[in-house]
Specification:
Number of domains: 1
Structural class: alpha+beta
Strand content: 25-35%
CATH topology: Alpha-Beta Plaits
Helix content: 25-40%
Oligomer: single chain
Order of helices and strands: HEHEEEHEEEHEEHE
CATH class: Alpha Beta
Largest sheet: 6 strands, antiparallel
Number of strands: 10
Radius of gyration: 15 Å
Length: about 180
Amino acid sequence: MRPHASVAAAVAVVPWQRSNAVLACIGLGANLGEAATTLRSALEALHRLPDTQLLRSSRLYCSPAWGNIAQPDFVNAVALLDTTLPARDLLDALLAIERGFGRIRAVDGSDRWGPRTLDLDLLLYGDAVIDEPGLRVPHPHLHQRAFALLPLLEIAPDAVIPGRGRACDLAMTIASDELQALG
């Protein structure tokens, strides 16, 4: 699977990029404990994934909770990875990182919109559209969330969300006034 041309265009030509590599965008979020520190440490964990290079990451952003709003604000970011891991293996690695930071997911999904120590979402995996149990790419709410779209545009300004369109066009249709860059 090749990276989507628009995501690839956002990254300077990388001479070491492998021909079977995919550019993947990962959303990071946390709102419990020292969330900013957790996200910085999670970026280091992404960098250590096998068969994966962390190419760049956005600034950290603070945003109000989405879904269940009766909880602390979130700190969010997006990372761009070059990986040869298949999408399912990458997702499994992301979930393992979450568990390493103390994230426990309720089996019934009842904590879906709740507070968390760390949330890692596979937002984009090249130009793939995947709809499997537990794995949906592009992320089904990416086009609705300023806290994911704006950091994505920071690291991949020409990104296209398969089935939705250009991320920059989608970002103009959602409110982003409550999103604040940190530091």
